[in-house]
Specification:
The complex is a heterodimer. By secondary structure, chain A is mainly alpha-helical. Helix content of chain A is about 60%, strand content about 0%. Chain B is mostly helical. The chains are: A mainly alpha, B mainly alpha.
């Protein structure tokens, strides 16, 4: 059976096995399968194309060095996402751009308490129909950049990478309950920040 | 129900607003089974607040749905082959941090050692300055580092200091001259 006819997970497993056997081309194929997704993920942490490329490159080199420890208990995609997020956060931390280092732990704050009216900042309107997709993307990215990294990461993994709660828990090495809690607060923070930065999108009652 | 608890209720549990807020998110993210979602939908029929919460979730989703991935940021041509080649060549990677000497623990240790040494020194000095006698004395006491030995100063500058000698014998009596007494005739013994 050719590799192109396999399920993605089986393809990944085969490519990993062949890479461990010394097949450089298999590792190259593995990189090609994930490189664009990882470039898309890392762009949420830095806007510099050079830095994005460095982070993704470092991610794959780390993955190669740790490949023997990959036990296939999770999918390769979850595993490579975890390395990517950790590499990106490490990069931000070392470059002094990790917001979590300069503010109190956002999860300890009660400012966005649980409950139906958690944010307390009014209702958010849907994007204007006249807005171009590029404009919506620009606003969303601006608001995301305002969030502490801990909240930005869960929103990116959920809303852009479409990871399940289980996959997010594996990527972030946290429990599913923590994923739910963090995601809930992240959404409230996103809504608050959007209404603060773009009050014109607040919905008038 | 708190956010960190499992939000997925048994299907026969009637949902209240207290636990609906966390369930609504899971419902919107398609993380509930049908058996879990059905009672929540029933709750929506009776609860305008939770319906509004679900509506907010849908509105928020539209902001992300309307922000697709930036197609302009893709891996450059030849990226995969270049990285695979570097990995197989044993490249440690650009961003792997070099082992750094932990500066903060070192500084803390040095500070602690200095503080301890200062404390010990001060205790020793204080103990030397305290009189060892248990009796109370009104004498002035000077610490040992003060030069209270005039003798040393005398020894250097002017020779030995005038010693104070405790007399061991009484000085001779001063005799008063008695004009009637015969110096050759001793006093008669009193009888």
């Amino acid at each position: 059976m050719g590799i192109l006819h396999m399920q993605p997970a089986r393809e990944d497993r085969l490519l990993v096995t062949e890479t461990l056997q010394g097949n450089q081309l298999s590792f190259q194929l593995l990189i090609e399968r994930y490189q664009d997704r990882l470039f898309g993920l890392v762009r949420h942490y830095t806007k510099s194309a050079v830095e994005i490329e460095d982070i993704v490159q470092d991610t794959f080199i780390k993955a190669y060095r740790k490949l023997e420890s990959f036990q296939h208990q999770s999918s390769f995609s979850t595993w490579i996402y975890r390395i990517t997020v950790n590499t990106a956060l490490d990069f931000l931390k070392r470059s002094g751009r990790n917001p979590v280092q300069s503010v109190e732990d956002p999860e300890m704050l009660g400012s966005t308490a649980d409950g139906p009216n958690a944010s307390g900042a009014g209702h958010l309107a849907a994007p204007d129909a006249n807005l171009q997709r590029e404009e919506i993307a620009q606003i969303t990215q601006h608001v995301l950049a305002e969030l502490p990294e801990i909240f930005r990461t869960v929103l990116v993994l959920r809303e852009f990478e479409d990871l399940s709660y289980q996959e997010m828990a594996e990527v972030l090495s946290i429990s599913i309950g923590t994923v739910e809690s963090r995601l809930f607060r992240a959404r409230a923070r996103f809504k608050d920040a959007l209404l603060r930065l773009y009050p014109e999108y607040g919905q008038t009652e | 129900m708190t956010m960190n608890q499992d939000p997925q209720p048994p299907s026969n549990l009637k949902i209240h607003c207290d636990n609906a807020s966390s369930l609504v998110q899971s419902y919107m993210d398609s993380e509930l089974t049908e058996a879990q979602a059905a009672p929540l939908r029933e709750h929506f029929l009776d609860c305008p607040a939770c319906r509004e919460l679900a509506k907010d979730g849908r509105v928020l989703r539209r902001w992300f749905d309307g922000a697709p991935g930036e197609s302009g940021i893709l891996a450059p041509e030849g990226f995969a082959s270049r990285v695979a080649r570097r990995a197989f060549a044993g490249d440690p990677g650009l961003l792997i941090p070099e082992p750094r000497r932990p500066l903060l623990p070192f500084l803390l240790t040095i500070t602690a050692v200095a503080a301890a040494a200062l404390f010990v020194f001060s205790v020793v000095i204080q103990r030397q300055a305290i009189p060892t006698s248990g009796t109370m004395s009104a004498e002035d006491y000077s610490p040992p580092w003060e030069d209270r030995s005039a003798g040393d100063r005398w020894a250097i500058d002017e020779g030995p200091p005038p010693a104070y000698v405790v007399p061991t014998e009484l000085p001779p009596l001063i005799e008063v001259d008695d004009p009637q007494a015969d110096p050759e005739d001793p006093k008669p013994d009193s009888e």
